[in-house]
Structure formats: structure tokens, C-alpha cells
Amino acid sequence: MALVLLPLAQGFEEVEAVSLIDVLRRGGVEVRIAHMDGDTDTDMVLGANGITIQADTSIANVMSEEFDMILLPGGWEGTYTLADNETVQRLLKEFKQKEKVIGSICAAAYALKKADVLGTEYTCYPAAADEIDHPGYREDKAVVTDGNIMTSRGPGTALCFGLEIVKRLVGVESYTAVKEGMLLDFCE
Amino acid sequence: MALVLLPLAQGFEEVEAVSLIDVLRRGGVEVRIAHMDGDTDTDMVLGANGITIQADTSIANVMSEEFDMILLPGGWEGTYTLADNETVQRLLKEFKQKEKVIGSICAAAYALKKADVLGTEYTCYPAAADEIDHPGYREDKAVVTDGNIMTSRGPGTALCFGLEIVKRLVGVESYTAVKEGMLLDFCE
Predict the structure, then answer these.
(1) How big, in percent rounded to 5, are the helix, strand and coil portions of chain A?
(2) Backbone angles phi and psi of B73, in degrees to 5
(3) Whole-structure pTM over 0.80, yes or no?
(4) Any bridge partners for residue A122, and if so which?
(5) Which residues of A touch B (CB under 8 A)?
(6) Which residue among A22, A125, A154 sits closest to B51, beta carbon to beta carbon?
(7) Which residues pair with B137 in a beta bridge?
(8) Using beta carbons and an 8 Å cutoff, which residues of B are at the interface with A?
(9) A38 has a pLDDT exceeding 80
(10) Which of B14, B106, B188 should one mutate to test binding to chain A, selecting the residue with the greatest count of A CBs within 10 A?
(11) Angle of the A158-169 helix axis to the A172-181 helix axis, nearest 10
(12) Please, what sign has the CA dihedral across residues A41, A47, A52, A53?
């Protein structure tokens, strides 16, 4: 079973994180939610809209060998933490070096840029493109796949992004089953 | 500020609950998440896909007078609990009697049916319509508004359902701002 690491920092965008976790798990992908090291006293992570979600482990316990993909949800506060966190930045570089899949949605492409793992084509939340300041921004696509780098735009594209990840990590049959089961006919 | 009660029972569908809470809060609605009475030792509620969310209060502390709307997320296990829970069933009847707004998505229309608050027209998760067994099922609409009863179909319609609730409780300007900010151009 494919295994995805989803780092969750305070201020994450809740629809993005939960849509990705839900779609992936329905599609047969194991998702491990990791809170930031330093938050040693709690596994609870507060989102940008006041929703608190429980993490499965600390990012400090993560070994990249175990995982097939690292996937970052957006939200600016969470994104800045993911961009500043040494463990997350080291993991992003390791995932790239080991040719594993790397994904981000919304502002979180900023943390990929910081780790120097963005490729030649990507997308992100429209208002975040200036701050990410990287060539190859595509404003015309909900999901951009550029080799091992998969990116998406924001809350409204999170479910469809999850589906594309399921298609890649599991297969088209699982993609179709989850798409029908969750009523995602608006996803291309 | 409009105040919405969102009862959360174990086995709730996470995309539905989180999409509704996130959209409503962005739209300027206060949302209070209530866990079931009986779960006295914890405010943590486990969803159908293994995501655990923290509630704000116990349903035992809720007084209907405070609220403008009660809104039930789906997921079959959670729905059966909402349908069997005496406090939730009493609150649904009180909200109807006081002409407050009542909403459900996915299977949760079953809990509305049990409380005898469904009207002449509603929608729900397609596969749930037989078990809900109530006349007026509309399979052609993502959101059905029938007086004070608002219903929607499933995970893929939750964001658009949230927008419709924002339009009703706050207004069209807020609806438009949230729709644009969350990239929800696929919502009608």
C-alpha cells in the first residue's frame, strides 16, 4: 500500500488537508499526518479556520525511506512554518533526491520553492504566485503534474487533486470508484 | 453574527463536516461543533476516514434559543447516532417548532426524517434515498432549499452547500467573496 506523509503545521487550510486525507484514504493510500517537531506537548494542530485535528506522529519521527510521497496542505501561516522548519525542508530535499513524489496545494508551493524542489511547471493559489516567484506558474490548470512534482491551486481544487494522486499512486480503477462515491463529477 | 450548531458523532464524513465549518466561518458565521452526550470523557470525535476533530462543547450543553441553524454532516455511522440520540432528536424538533433553519448533507437526512422535520422536497446521498424513504427526493440538484429545510447530496457538494448557507444567513456579498477566495467557480 502506498504511504503518504502529510505534515500539518498550525494555520493549515482545513478543507485542503482534510480533502486530501479523505480522498487518499478512500482510494487505498495510507496517509500519516505529522505535526511539527517542537510542538512536543501535543499532537493537536489548529487550522486557519479554528478546526483542530489530531496528528498521527511527530515530524521528528519520520524517515523518508518509508514513504512514497510528501504532500503539503496550504494556508499561509502553516506554509511559512513548513518553509522554515528544518526537518520538513530536509525531507523535501530527500524526497526529491530519492525520486519520490512531492505535492503541494495553495500557498504551500512556497515551501517547495524554499527547498529548491519546484520544477519547470507548477500551480498554486493565484494570489501566492508573486511571493513564490518561480518561473512556470500555470494559472489555467487545477492540477499540474511535472515529473514527480504535483501541485494544485486551493480549497476548491483539493478533492480533484486528491483524485489525481490516487490515480498515480493506486490506479485508474480506484480513481473512478472514489470519484463516483464522493460525487466528484466536476473533476476532469 | 449568525450562530450554527454542528453536531458531530463518531463516523461523521470528514470532508462534509470540515467543508461546511470552513466555508461558514470564512463567510462570517459562527459555528459551534458539539460532540454527543455520553462521550463524557473526551471532546475528540473520530470520523469515518480516521480523521479526529476536536469539538467545542457537548450537545448536552446546547440550548436551541442561542442558535439560528442546526446542520448535520453525513457518514452512515454518525447519521445513525444522530438519529438515535435523544438530545439531537429533541433539538431538531425544537428548531423546527421555532422556525429556525435545519440542514443536512448526505445520509444525515435520515436523522431529519426520524425527527419528522423533512418537508416536501429534499436531497441526500443517492444510495441513501431508499433507506430515508420519504417523498420529494430530488436527484437533480446539489442543494435543495424547502422553506427552512436545506439539504445536499454528499462530499462533492459540501462546499457549494456551505456557500448557499452563507448566502442565506449572511448575504450575497459574503457568498461571492468566499466563492472567489476558495476558488469555487464550479458552484452554481
Answers:
(1) 45, 20, 35
(2) -75, 160
(3) yes
(4) A137
(5) 13-15, 18-19, 21-23, 25-26, 44, 49-54, 125-126, 153-157, 159, 182-186
(6) A22
(7) B122
(8) 13-15, 18-19, 21-23, 25-26, 44, 49-54, 125-126, 153-157, 159, 182-186
(9) no
(10) B14
(11) 150
(12) negative
Q: How many residues are listed for chain B in this entry?
A: 188
Per-residue pLDDT tens digits for A57-105: 999 999 999 999 999 999 999 999 999 999 999 999 999 999 999 999 9
Q: What class does CATH assign to A3-181?
A: alpha beta
Nearest CA in chain B to A152: B183
> Which residue of B44, B155, B184 is in closest CB contact with A182?
B155
**DSSP labels, A97-147:** HTT-EEEEEGGGHHHHHHTT---S-B---GGGHHHH--TTB-SS-SEEEET
Q: How far apart are CA A166 and CA A56, in angstroms?
A: 21
Instruction: Examine the predicted complex and report whether its ipTM is higher than 0.85.
Output: yes
Catalytic residue status for A106: yes
pLDDT score for B40: 58
